[in-house]
TrEMBL record:
Entry protein name: Uncharacterized protein
Recorded coiled-coil stretches: none
Membrane spanning stretches: none
Entry superkingdom: Eukaryota
Length: 202
């Protein structure tokens, strides 16, 4: 008799759209969805990056080749994928950052924008119910966005030496787990989920 599998199979057969899924955290979320048995569509404003990401996913998950489990398109076509299927759990997960919760020198405009996402998430959770809406508040993550940042090494050194409770810099696969949690927990809505290495504590 086979073991039950009621937790790992929660996303089995699900359909997930990842906006910004061609790199970084978005691509890691796409990988996690595939590994949990879901089908994923990735979207980006850059068609070339979408194609590169699709090749990467198909190389990492050969079983998706020739199936409908992986697809990609330019982000302007996304709205048609946001319709709720009758009888199925449907959720939206937005992305914000730790800058909405902890003041950083010179980051006021970014903090205002990220804080707006927190409010938007809670309001949408009410307005769109029973569709679930949650927000992931992300701390520093080592992605390509930092590649040309002139202060990258200085900022990362501070995080490793006292500014982060974990003493390490997150990678996209760390943060992807938070998105998977919000997709799987049918009781989670209107919530802000933090994944920031404990920088709010320091």
């Amino acid at each position: 008799m086979a073991d039950q599998c009621k937790y790992l199979s929660k996303l089995q057969g699900s359909k997930v759209l990842v906006l910004g899924g061609s790199a970084g955290v978005g691509l890691a979320v796409a990988e996690a969805v595939i590994e949990h048995g879901g089908s994923v569509a990735i979207a980006s404003h850059n068609p070339e990056r979408v194609e590169n990401a699709l090749r990467s996913l198909e190389s990492a998950y050969p079983s998706t080749i020739g199936t409908s489990r992986v697809s990609g398109f330019v982000a302007k076509h996304a709205p048609q994928y946001l319709l709720k299927a009758d009888g199925q759990d449907c959720s939206i997960t937005l992305s914000s950052s730790v800058s909405a919760q902890k003041p950083l020198p010179g980051w006021s405009p970014i903090a205002a924008m990220r804080s707006a996402v927190l409010g938007l998430g809670m309001s949408l959770a009410y307005d769109l119910r029973p569709i679930r809406v949650n927000v992931i508040a992300v701390g520093p993550v080592d992605t390509g966005l930092w590649a040309n940042h002139v202060r990258k090494e200085k900022i990362f050194d501070k995080l490793k030496n006292g500014k982060s409770a974990t003493g390490r810099i997150a990678v996209p696969s760390d943060v992807a787990e938070a998105y998977i949690y919000c997709m799987k927990d049918a009781n989670c809505t209107g919530s802000v989920v933090n994944t920031n290495g404990g920088v709010l504590l320091m």
